[in-house]
Amino acid sequence: MKLGIVGLPNVGKSTLFNAITKAGAESANYPFCTIEPNVGVVSVPDVRLNVLRDMYDSKKIVHTAIEFYDIAGLVKGASKGEGLGNQFLSHIREVASIVHVVRCFDDENVVHVDGEIGPLKDIETINIELILSDVEMLDRRVQKTQKQLKGDKTLAQELELLERVKKVLDEGLSARTMDLTEDEEDFVKSLNLLSYKPVIYCANVSEEDVASGVENDYVKQVRQFAESENAEVVVICGKVEQEISELEDEDREAFLEELGLRESGLDKLIRSSYHLLDLISFLTAGPQEVRAWTIRRGTKAPQAAGKIHSDIERGFIRAETIAFEDLKAYGNMAAAKEVGKVRLEGKEYIVQDGDVILFRFNV
């Protein structure tokens, strides 16, 4: 899963990236300190793996992972090549979801590219550039489809949808605000529009605000706007996340408790990412390793098996399955089998979050 961290210069993108990946990306108080996207891989925390490791006496744990891309700061006019606009936009096309960092704190020592703090204005600046880039691409697609329509009348429905999407974009709205049928969603998704990508607005607040637990007016503005797009909002403090990242594991919980926080910003960001992209994890376990595998909700057993290896999907016979909570409750697979908690599922079985699965296959 690839997530692109974007935002105007000096909103805290690289600070957040450094904190959550410990990758040491350059962070500076001036625009365009990030040119090529820095990439950091983060393990997704999952306490269920620790339980399975102890149960199976496994040699290692393998977490599923998220790739974070710290993409260059954007300025007005990027869709026309201003700043590093063209590079920025091409990098966004490669990610599954956008983490849009929005500055929601006042600090006279950190310059704002527009000279004043305004989260909604910042959001609009970036969204408009994504929309303008999409409009340019759609114009070409509409013209091409119009020409093809003369020889293939079946394209009329496709053309109508393209023009409907373009109308929304021309109104300054992101494609993700549209109400679409399932088939229409699949088609629009295939266009790889920047303004259709799922978004998490990451409200970067001060240390005082995150400790108080009270959302400031800037955050409230972001949350209200996000509702209009069905987007997610995560409130974090880049500075606090940086402090957390420098602590040993045993000290982190104490630090969070001291601040009155139940979880880190990274944990909240990961949880929101899974929810936004409709992802779940199934688990595999044995003496060699226990591992989490990420799939989309609604994935059937053979396709889930394909995440492990294409041969397992091709030769799928059945899935020996048990819910993690049932396995935990009975202590081991043998005890769970005795009470009928282990199921044999076929090709139509839809894998559930937390399923512990052993795939049977033959190739």
Layout of strands and helices, then pairs:
Elements: E1 2-6, H1 13-21, E2 38-43, H2 47-56, E3 60-62, E4 65-70, H3 85-92, E5 97-103, H4 119-149, H5 156-170, H6 182-190, E6 199-204, H7 207-212, H8 217-229, E7 232-236, H9 238-245, H10 249-259, H11 265-277, E8 279-285, E9 289-296, H12 301-308, H13 310-314, E10 316-323, H14 324-330, H15 333-338, E11 343-345, E12 355-361
Parallel strand pairs: 1-4, 1-5, 3-9, 5-6, 6-7
Antiparallel strand pairs: 2-4, 8-9, 10-11, 10-12
Main features:
three-stranded mixed beta sheet; flat; alpha/beta; 44% helix; 15 helices; 363 residues
Could you provide a short overview of the structure?
This protein has 363 residues and is an alpha/beta fold. It has helices at 13-21, 47-56, 85-92, 119-149, 156-170, 182-190, 207-212, 217-229, 238-245, 249-259, 265-277, 301-308, 310-314, 324-330, 333-338; strands spanning 2-6, 38-43, 60-62, 65-70, 97-103, 199-204, 232-236, 279-285, 289-296, 316-323, 343-345, 355-361. It is built from 15 helices and twelve strands.
What does this structure look like?
The chain has helices at residues 13-21, 47-56, 85-92, 119-149, 156-170, 182-190, 207-212, 217-229, 238-245, 249-259, 265-277, 301-308, 310-314, 324-330, 333-338; strands at 2-6, 38-43, 60-62, 65-70, 97-103, 199-204, 232-236, 279-285, 289-296, 316-323, 343-345, 355-361. With 363 residues, the protein is of the alpha/beta class. The strands form three sheets. The chain has a six-stranded mixed β-sheet with strand order 2-4-1-5-6-7, with helices on both faces. The radius of gyration is 23 Å and the shape is flat. The two termini are 29 Å apart.
